[in-house]
Specification:
By secondary structure, this protein is an alpha/beta fold. The protein has ten helices and seven strands.
Length: 257
Amino acid sequence: MGDPHMTPDQLLEAWHDQQTAFIEFREMRTRTMVRVLAHLQSGLDHPIRVLDLACGPASLATEVLAAIPGASAVGVDRDPILLRLAKETNQFGERLQIVDADITDPTLPEQLGGRIFDAAISATALHWLDPGELVSLYQHLPRMLVDGGVFLNADHLYYDQRTQAGLDALAVSLRDSFQVNHMEQGAMSWDDWWQAATTMPGWEKDAQRRQQVWANDHPTVKVSTGFHLAALQAAGFIETDQIYQWFDDRIIFGRLA
């Protein structure tokens, strides 16, 4: 059961801990993304503007804002619990704005008021999209980015179980072993964290709305690194690559012309 005395800050810390249980080198992955954005900032004549897609509690945006003075970020998500957690733990005031919107909605650029960003980022989220939704998102990204804008997506992009069975088995074994060890040290499981979050005192309406939002949730088809890169290229990103990898944990990069 959720601890009635858990504060939003404690819940956020528990989120970080349980996410790390799934992503052994989560800190290194985040640092890599932040360094790319810091390098981008060095060539700009204004504070970098970042769009965090499927931001959850805005963990990644928070790291960017902490590392790059003056940076601003807009985080977009549709999960009521995570949106509330992001808002209640926001340490950056107006530099971080949280928007309730569906990133698969073709009208997302309009919902964001036509704002243009220097970079769009996402972490451990886009694997929830169906392939068609992912392609559609990538097609709409250029409308939300400046010329030369950058896209970074960190996620588990799994090995092909048919042609890369050995690597797939090794990656799963390493991930499972790390997760067990991390949870033995006190990290919550995914289910335990959500039990705590949805039973936070005063968050009952958010928990009810969450059930409605995800009522039609379904398993998605997993796609490869190559699929991501090809979809970005088709959307107009002229420079694309995988810039980080720890087995099946990767960062996809794209830059517009």
